[in-house]
Design goal:
99 residues, mainly alpha
Length: 99
């Protein structure tokens, strides 16, 4: 899949007019999980969500996937966000509904 992805991306870049395409060899153990697009943090200036996954400034929007992680290791993060973030998010939502 990695080789196919590199091949297709190179083709698309070439079709878009790229004159030089450099491919960085990928580690066999590299993690390819979409993460970091909605980083968790304490300040809205440099993060999207608070520590509980709620989007800064939007009380009723909670992010409960790997996008809140700002870094990744080569191991699958699924058990971490399914077992922790999703359960914590569900608990937070149920608390909001109870009030």
């Amino acid at each position: 899949m990695k080789a196919y992805g590199i091949e297709m991306a190179s083709q698309w870049l070439g079709d878009a007019g790229a004159s030089k395409i450099t491919v960085n060899p990928l580690s066999a153990q590299a993690g390819f999980h979409l993460m970091g697009t909605a980083p968790m943090g304490s300040r809205p200036e440099n993060s999207v969500t608070a520590a509980d996954g709620r989007v800064h400034g939007l009380e009723n929007l909670t992010v409960i996937d790997a996008s809140v992680f700002v870094t990744a290791s080569p191991v699958n993060p699924t058990s971490t966000f399914a077992g922790t973030l999703a359960l914590a998010g569900a608990d937070l939502m149920s608390q909001r509904l109870a009030t």
